């Protein structure tokens, strides 16, 4: 018998392009979308990590393609998205690649700001532009998922560059949703809370990491920090027909740390 609930999340016959797919949230999302049936094009500058993601996708019976690229380079992003469209079509974009940065406002340099904006905002912009153009030309609709952050809802010391870039991603998401909607393309953002990933771990020693996670756990009504799988589920929801009437929205898998109206 047909299973409407299961079918709503079925991506069989569809193709997803995911940036930041070599690790963390990007890898978890790539594997989950592959489990849901999608052919997944995995993009990242970390080629070794991409092969690890491809191996994980194959282990669940999925199909993976690899694109080694720098998301801050428009030409590389456009070429990879075009290659994916020509090879398999393009139904889903999950623009996840990003870097963490922390510096006090009074110590932030032009170089700090330019680097973070180039990756965390422009990298998502380039992917969105390339994917939207391909989807519009194909006339079959699609879903674009951008990666924002809980930093857009709360202030915090050191988060100027990172928070500003993610706030820009939210505005991009809402604006593109209004422009792409008439073409049947949905555009939504995911704004995670504290997630245990290589990006959040690399700047701390084990003692500092344990302290940070304990603090963030106490701030959450659920009493824990998140894992990449928690965010991947949100990406799958927005990529699938389960969210067919959802666009221009921010989905917040943050454990209840922020509850904006």
From TrEMBL:
Keyword Oxidoreductase: yes
Keywords of this entry: Oxidoreductase
GO MF annotations in UniProt: oxidoreductase activity
Record keyword Acetylation present: no
Cross-referenced Gene3D superfamilies: NAD(P)-binding Rossmann-like Domain
Entries under InterPro entries matching the protein: NAD(P)-bd_dom_sf, Sc_DH/Rdtase_CS, SDR_fam
EC main group: oxidoreductase
Enzyme nomenclature, EC number: 1.1.1.-
Pfam families: adh_short_C2
Family: Belongs to the short-chain dehydrogenases/reductases (SDR) family.
PANTHER family: DEHYDROGENASES, SHORT CHAIN (PTHR24321), OXIDOREDUCTASE UCPA (PTHR24321:SF15)
Name of the protein in question: SDR family NAD(P)-dependent oxidoreductase
Organism: Streptomyces monticola
């Amino acid at each position: 018998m047909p299973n409407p609930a299961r079918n709503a999340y079925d991506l069989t016959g569809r193709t997803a392009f995911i940036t930041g797919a070599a690790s963390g949230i990007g890898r978890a999302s790539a594997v989950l979308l592959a489990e849901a049936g999608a052919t997944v094009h995995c993009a990242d500058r970390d080629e070794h990590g991409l092969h690890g993601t491809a191996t994980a996708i194959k282990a669940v019976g999925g199909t993976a393609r690899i694109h080694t690229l720098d998301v801050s380079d428009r030409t590389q992003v456009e070429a990879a998205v075009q290659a994916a469209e020509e090879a398999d079509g393009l139904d889903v974009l999950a623009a996840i690649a990003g870097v963490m940065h922390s510096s006090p406002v009074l110590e932030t340099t032009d170089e700090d700001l330019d680097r973070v904006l180039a990756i965390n905002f422009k990298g998502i912009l380039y992917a969105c532009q390339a994917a939207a153009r391909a989807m519009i030309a194909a006339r079959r609709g699609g879903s674009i998922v951008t990666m924002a952050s809980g930093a857009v809802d709360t202030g915090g010391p050191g988060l100027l560059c990172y928070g500003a870039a993610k706030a820009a991603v939210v505005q991009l998401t809402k604006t593109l949703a209004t422009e792409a909607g008439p073409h049947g393309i949905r555009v939504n953002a995911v704004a995670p809370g504290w997630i245990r990933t290589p990006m959040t771990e690399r700047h701390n020693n084990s003692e500092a990491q344990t302290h940070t996670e304990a603090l963030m756990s106490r701030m959450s009504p659920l009493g824990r920090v998140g894992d990449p799988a928690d965010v991947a589920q949100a990406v799958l929801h927005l990529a699938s027909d389960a969210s067919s009437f959802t666009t221009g929205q921010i989905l917040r898998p943050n454990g209840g740390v922020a509850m904006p109206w």
